[in-house]
């Protein structure tokens, strides 16, 4: 591909080895040539992905191309990230499929439209940068859950069968799918095409020369289509409606459904997941090049504008897609012109060659998405994460399992709550430093009682360490001085109260809270209650003071 473009531009640009002087900016002609080449590469990567995501989402294949076109021509022109490419993403396939199944294709447009408007609002309010505060474990768990559900659903399409529906139902139906497939020649033929597609996707990048000319997804789908044509296999093919026939703008009845509780939850899920995926993709793409970095707020507004237009057209939601974006950077793109041109090529293809979609086997597209679902799962990261940050691994696994068991929105919420709870537990450590005269011998013996100390991987451990004793003194035992240090929250309250109950029952207690960085209401109330109960239980009154303020009688 690049050699062909070189021959086209050589007459004006000079031979491919010609370079600008060191430090000088690249000529506009050279920049355009690089962007032109990159746009063709991204276009070839995008076509099978756009069509595959649409088919897997339960909508006409052309709607995937519409979203890709909007992502190139509109979002590609707007400021934000210069090199990342937007379009329909495998990460939203499960959510879109559930929404279409629950509310119908007609409601998809209004859901995407409102999600786009929310993204515009969040970008205007400068909330884009806050998406970087989301726990990485939750994001990885979200992608793993999406990958699991996506693979489970596409295994049915791989055999030209219909999936039962939800993630658990799809997983539970796999034994029956296996039995039905073994007994059907047409299903076995479809599985062979899908498995061959996955094999090409895995092996094609190793053939360096071929991979530079033709991207793996396009090569896999093209070879599968050729095999079906030559062998005349009885497998299902993509249904074609035509570009204009597939566009279904939302009607007035759809607009009235915005207030439904279920649709509100779906809109929020679309907004959260599409925004997070786009901005995390932007961060990843920024690490791939040395050009201008992403303005997260502007990029969020660009995504919102694109989704608003997609919603008006009744198309799929868009996000920034790391596969296309990395292909864009690897192909040598210099400016946003490459992603805009890729949108032009998609438009030309959809308008001039719509019948070409009708020869693509559905099993081949299912193979593309099974491969994409596998790549969504952080297989290589799980073992080191479990070894070094066990709590994060638990959050990741919980999020993924919750998405499979419930749905996307509830699963992500559960993951976020788990991450917050884990962080609160790890940061809310408090310990008591206890010192005073020994009860029996008048020996002053400083002692440190660690109430709760965080350990790697989560959890806590109680320890007691004895420091070097000071010279002994005789006489009446003095007060026991207790200094609390750390963050006292309700999470550590049971252990804290247990340590206080172990203090000598017949001695005056001086409880110093000045070392606490945080004291929540639950701990404050519990400490006051403990002081009052201690005062009432003593046979002979002994003082209890908090912050060196003696409390005699009732604690107030």
From TrEMBL:
Location(s) in or outside the cell: Membrane
Main location: membrane
Record's bilayer topology term: Multi-pass membrane protein
MlaB-like STAS domain residues: 483-536
InterPro entries registered for this protein in UniProt: MlaB-like_STAS, SLC26A/SulP_dom, SLC26A/SulP_fam
TM regions (residue ranges): 36-56, 63-83, 103-121, 133-157, 177-204, 261-285, 305-323, 343-372, 393-421
Residue stretches in coiled coil: none
UniProt keyword terms in alphabetical order: Membrane, Transmembrane, Transmembrane helix
One Pfam family per UniProt: Sulfate_transp
Domain SLC26A/SulP transporter positions: 32-398
PANTHER family from the UniProt entry: SULFATE TRANSPORTER
Official protein name in the record: SulP family inorganic anion transporter
Organism from which the protein derives: Streptomyces olivaceiscleroticus
Taxon lineage: Bacteria, Bacillati, Actinomycetota, Actinomycetes, Kitasatosporales
């Amino acid at each position: 591909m690049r050699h062909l473009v070189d021959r086209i531009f050589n007459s004006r640009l000079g031979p491919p080895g010609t370079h600008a002087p060191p430090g000088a900016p690249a000529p506009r002609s050279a920049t355009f040539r690089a962007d032109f080449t990159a746009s063709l590469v991204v276009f070839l990567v995008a076509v099978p992905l756009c069509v595959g995501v649409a088919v897997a989402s339960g909508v006409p294949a052309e709607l995937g191309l519409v979203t890709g076109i909007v992502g190139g021509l509109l979002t590609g022109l707007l400021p934000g990230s210069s090199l990342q490419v937007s379009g329909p993403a495998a990460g939203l396939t499960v959510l879109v499929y559930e929404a279409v199944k629950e509310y119908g294709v007609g409601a998809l447009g209004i859901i995407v439209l409102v999600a786009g408007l929310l993204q515009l609002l969040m970008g205007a309010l400068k909330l884009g940068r806050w998406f970087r505060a989301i726990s990485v474990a939750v994001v990885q768990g979200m992608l793993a859950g999406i990958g699991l559900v996506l693979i489970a659903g596409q295994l049915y399409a791989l055999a030209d069968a219909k999936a039962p529906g939800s993630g658990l139902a799809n997983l539970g139906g796999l034994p029956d799918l296996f039995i039905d497939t073994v007994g059907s020649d047409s299903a076995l033929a479809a599985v062979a095409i899908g498995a061959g597609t996955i094999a090409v996707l895995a092996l094609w990048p190793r053939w360096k020369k071929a991979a530079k000319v033709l991207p793996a997804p396009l090569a896999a789908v093209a070879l599968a289509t050729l095999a079906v044509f030559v062998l005349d296999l009885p497998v299902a093919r993509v249904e074609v409606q035509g570009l204009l026939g597939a566009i279904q703008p939302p009607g007035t009845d759809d607009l009235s459904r915005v207030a439904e509780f279920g649709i509100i939850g779906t809109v929020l899920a679309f907004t959260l997941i599409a925004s997070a995926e786009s901005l995390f993709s932007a961060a990843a793409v920024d690490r791939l090049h040395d050009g201008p970095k992403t303005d997260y707020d502007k990029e969020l507004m660009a995504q919102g504008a694109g989704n608003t237009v997609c919603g008006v057209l009744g198309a799929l939601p868009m996000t920034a897609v790391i596969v296309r974006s990395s292909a864009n950077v690897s192909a040598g793109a210099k400016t946003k012109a490459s992603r805009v041109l890729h949108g032009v090529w998609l438009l030309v293809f959809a308008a001039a060659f719509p019948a070409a979609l009708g020869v693509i086997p559905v099993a081949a597209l299912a193979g593309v998405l099974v491969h994409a679902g596998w790549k969504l799962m952080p297989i290589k990261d799980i073992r080191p994460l479990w070894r070094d940050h066990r709590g994060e691994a638990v959050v990741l696994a919980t999020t993924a399992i919750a998405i499979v068991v419930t749905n996307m929105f509830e699963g992500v919420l559960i993951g976020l709550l788990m991450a917050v709870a884990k962080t609160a537990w790890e940061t809310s450590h408090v310990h008591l430093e206890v010192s005073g005269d020994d009860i029996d011998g008048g020996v002053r013996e400083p002692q440190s009682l660690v109430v709760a100390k965080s350990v790697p991987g989560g959890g806590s451990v109680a320890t007691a360490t004895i420091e070097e004793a000071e010279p002994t003194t005789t006489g009446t035992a003095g007060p026991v001085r207790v200094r609390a240090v750390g963050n006292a929250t309700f999470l550590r309250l049971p252990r804290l109260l247990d340590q206080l109950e172990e203090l000598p029952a017949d001695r005056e207690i001086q409880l110093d809270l000045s070392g606490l960085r945080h004291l929540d209401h639950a701990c404050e109330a519990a400490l006051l209650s403990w002081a009052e109960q201690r005062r009432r239980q003593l046979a002979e009154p002994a003082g209890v003071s908090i912050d060196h303020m003696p409390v005699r009688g009732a604690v107030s």
